[in-house]
Amino acid sequence: MPHYSQPITSAAESDDKSSLIQNLVAEIKKLTSRVQGFEGNKGVEGLNCKDLCVQPDVELLEGYKPPKFEMFDGTGNPRVHLRMYCDKLVGVGRDEKIRMKMFMRSLKGDALSWYISQDAKKWTSWVNMASDFMDQFRFNTENAPDVFYIQNLKKKPTETFREYATHWRSEAAKVRLALEEEQMNRFFVRAQDPQYYERLMLIEGQKFSDIIKLGERIEEGIKNGMVTNLEAL
Length: 233
Known about the structure:
Blueprint: H1 11-41, H2 49-52, H3 78-88, H4 96-102, H5 109-116, H6 126-137, H7 139-142, H8 147-151, H9 161-172, H10 181-190, H11 194-200, H12 208-224
């Protein structure tokens, strides 16, 4: 009758298996610990208060009511906004951490989107934050309108004359070399279509508000058929 010998397991093989099992157990423990930590903290990295907030440890003074800030939407002069923002922080503006913490409350639109896309931890000082803000929106001042632009800024069909005049005046105020009132009036009148121009030129030396009033009367006359609308001919 044939005799089958039992396989002989060496001591070295036994030690290797034991070591492998121990390593697997250790890895399973690490994985279990990580899963428990994830469930306990909701462990989504970057969603803790300290990750999301600027100066998370700063608390506002009891009873302090934040002012109503002028909102910056990504257009306009960023330096002007910084000055208006700091002027609003009466009583707490000297505290750099509070100044940094509240800055987001003065932003909206594209400016707010830019702000929340930044890593809040990189801003270690107000100067760091303000410098990044200026770098992001400085192009607004570098692309300021010139006289040629405002001379050719026409009224849109959907605008009333007052809306147009207000918008035109706002754009004219951005011209790099500031215009005197008389120059502004002259450029505005020259930007008009003939039915406005031939009437407004008679009072271009008066106040801009008077020009707006006459422009509204001309606008009403066009609607009522009292003034010929040359664009419709």
